[in-house]
Write a structure and sequence with these properties.
By secondary structure, the protein is an alpha/beta fold. The protein folds into 2 domains: about 170 residues, Class I glutamine amidotransferase (GATase) domain (Rossmann fold, 3-Layer(aba) Sandwich); about 120 residues, Arc Repressor Mutant, subunit A, CATH 1.10.10.60. Helices cover about 45% and strands about 15% of the residues. Helix 1 runs parallel beside helix 5.
Amino acid sequence: MPIWTKAHDGTTQVSFVLFDRFSNHVFANALEPLRAANTILNSPGYAWEILTLDGGTVSSSAGMKVMPDGRLDGESAGDILVVLPSYGYRDFATVTLTRALRAARSRFKALAGIDGGAWLLASAGLLDGRRATIHFDEQDAFAEAFPDVIVTRDRWIDDGDRMTASGAVTAFELMLALIEREHGAALPLRIASLFSANDADTAGPLLPKGRDQRVRLALAAMEAAIETPRPIAEIATDAGCTQKDLEHRFRQAFGAPPRTVYAHLRMGAAKRMVEESALPVAEIAGRAGYDNASAFTRAYRRAFGVSPRQARSGRPA
């Protein structure tokens, strides 16, 4: 469950704090999953703004200039504050930034540090007693500089209202995990598939956490059997492991068992057919592995808040 309370319109508010020489790559990997989520949801599930410490323009490491929406020490508030420096981030660990971050803690429900952002949060004392990670090359120095932080050699860490990611690819993974908190496993899977090569050498989309080959094989088997769902034990055999092992691997990758992820994949396929085809609902139900159209409609409403027919007409539930 989310640790924050959504705005009255159901939108999660995300504020990105950028600094001079920020990485375009890291920023895009943190932002694009939110944009893709809105596109797939066809609703403003996420809103974002860009902040800088003083409200002035910043330039990326590639020289791209960005005009922010506001200043960190202003009145901005929301659900998640993402601190996103890059090169030379230690130089930004000033008394002024520390004061601004500590003040922001009361205005935002969660704080995230991506790439060197963990260093700045730790410098402000906002990671004391928390699990955190940073770029692999900096982990030893990070642990030495901040002994009260529980430094872990993970790609990214979700420690409730404190989150950290070690770099560009892991920023993408962390944002998918945050989206999964609110929308389940199907949406991040679909977002990830938009950014994957999806060629013959790709056994399914990028995973929300890690690249477990057995999980990827299981996902490929599930996606190949949407219309006629197969028992999880058979899926596990295709993946080269036992059902118990596959259950463990899926919980590590998605925080959900294979059966739940399989149901999300089937419902995701159904949503695409509802939105992108003129097939009758009864036929879509069959192609999504449902024998009963009424049961399919109930499951669709639980997943998306509207019936298939309402989704097509654009009418509210």
